[in-house]
Amino acid sequence: IDFRKVQFLLSAHAIGQLPAPVYPDIAFAGRSNVGKSSLLNRLVDRSNLVKTSSKPGKTQSLNYFLVEESLYLVDLPGYGYAQVSQQTRQSWQGLITEYVTTRSTLACVVVIIDLRHELKQLDRELVDWLRYLDTPYLPVYTKADKLSRNQQMKNAAALDAGLTLTADDRIIFSSSTGQGLDSLRSRLSGFARS
Ligand code: GDP
């Protein structure tokens, strides 16, 4: 499928506002500032389709995009932003928990992780939870361009070990250089409605 044939559909602030489940959902999750908007924009080859919220952690909405007539891309609110209140954090968790556990057409959660850093507990918890729920997920290690190839391999191996993954289970990515873009597109194409 052609990810460039994309259109914004809606922002849902509650589960009742989601579009009819006629296409599979690919959801994108990650800590605030991890590079989720940049990855999505690169995926669909638009410079600014997905706007970065100036105040991370503030947007509590699920943003839906339709690709061709074959799948939805769902931009989930970023998590782990330290400056948000307990209440905001809980409402994030509530919305995401309800979404992931009730959306029957959820085909895959792309879990975006910064390749430069050690595994964060929240990322590990998200992956564990998706495994527990039996929800397919795809870890993507981003900002690879900020590291040498050698360091990329080292850091990726450490994240793999922390998440108990093998190299085939995840993608090393850069929104700046497009590294990993073909792999990401081909993996996600597999979820599209034929
Ligand atoms: P979001 O909060 O997860 O949506 O993160 P953004 O996509 O807004 O990215 C946060 C910051 O990281 C921005 O300054 C981006 O330009 C930068 N960034 C995101 N992805 C990459 C990448 O792959 N390489 C580099 N060098 N910078 C990136």
TrEMBL record:
Please report the stretch or stretches of sequence annotated as the EngB-type G domain.
22-194
What this protein needs as a cofactor is:
Mg(2+)
Could you tell me the keywords of this UniProt record? Cell cycle, Cell division, GTP-binding, Magnesium, Metal-binding, Nucleotide-binding, Septation
Q: Which GO terms describe its biological process?
A: division septum assembly
- Which Pfam family, giving just one, matches this sequence? MMR_HSR1
Q: Which domain of life, per UniProt?
A: Bacteria
The protein's job, in short, is: Necessary for normal cell division and for the maintenance of normal septation.
Family, as annotated: Belongs to the TRAFAC class TrmE-Era-EngA-EngB-Septin-like GTPase superfamily. EngB GTPase family.
Q: What is this protein called?
A: Probable GTP-binding protein EngB
